[in-house]
Amino acid sequence: MSQVIQLQVNGEAAECAAQTLLPDYLQQIGLNPRLVAVEYNGEILHRQFWEETYLQAGDRLEIVTIVGGG
């Protein structure tokens, strides 16, 4: 059984399995990683680092969905 860690996502408590990559977590919560921007522990996390970012207990994520329109 994998360990569950506690996070804060958009100001609310959340959890995921330990050693979850950021893009995998985004998909698990129903978001398309190509259509969001992520602030990770107070810093905008550039997309080039997502594939090497494993979520840790206590991490704080702010996730903003990109919406198109005119």
UniProtKB/TrEMBL annotation:
Cross-referenced CDD domains: Ubl_ThiS
Gene3D superfamilies: 3.10.20.30
SUPFAM superfamilies assigned to the protein according to its UniProt record, in alphabetical order: MoaD/ThiS
Coiled-coil region: none
Entry-linked Pfam families: ThiS
InterPro entries hit by this protein: Beta-grasp_dom_sf (IPR012675), Mopterin_synth/thiamin_S_b (IPR016155), Thi_S (IPR010035), ThiS/MoaD-like (IPR003749)
The protein's name: Thiamine biosynthesis protein ThiS
Organism this protein belongs to: Leptolyngbya iicbica LK
Upper classification of the organism: Bacteria, Bacillati, Cyanobacteriota, Cyanophyceae, Leptolyngbyales
